[in-house]
What does this fold into?
Amino acid sequence: MSDRLAGKTVVITGGASGIGAGIARGISAEGANVVIADLDLAAGKAVADTIVAAGGSAIAVLVDVAQRESVRVGIETAVATFGRLDVYFNNAGFNTPMKFLDITEDNFNRIMQVNALGVLIGIQEAAKQFIRQGGPGKIVNTASIAGRTGYASFAPYSAAKAAVISLTQAGARALAAEGITVNGFAPGVVATPLWTKLDAELKNIGEGDSGFDSMAGGILLGRPAQPEDIVPTAIFLAAGDSDYITGQVIPIEGGMILV
It folds into this structure.
């Protein structure tokens, strides 16, 4: 265990599984107090328990990122438990693929509400807490390669992740004077339960050629990512190493999208 984040309190939305759980464990190993904010409280507690069992510091809180009051209560719980907030990861998200001409208003609105509006609310409420504390803070958003290039079978998700990139830039401009940095990272194909679910759903709508194996075949480094591949960049963006970086989105995709 090192101490790059010793004593820092870090909230991770969607921290109960996949990339979020990987970040939670990695952040804990750097000495942080970890707050796992997730709709699945039982799964969040299970991750927190493993962190505590390994000698770390963690709690889980029930948070719906699309509901401002829920986000506010999650932050209040973090501060009540650990004394302050230092880093906020807007990581929660989901996707339900549909053929482009079949996309419904409900599909679009639900995906945008969680993946885009949820990030806006998270940035706002975390920033308000940083300002109340009178100190700096860091916000880190999970974007995606889908925010850089649109995919026909999950166009709303692509649109939402493009919004995350724009919100990262806008938040960086709005909050720099307060000593708050806003950055993000953009994963590609990551071996998580979310991708397993997407793979099955793509096959169900007759888009099997757009699935995990097909997309992973375009990765220059020859394999999909594991959540552990995301962790070093997440730690970098949470730690003091990135103090002079803001408004940036770092690709972590093994060379899928070259821009």
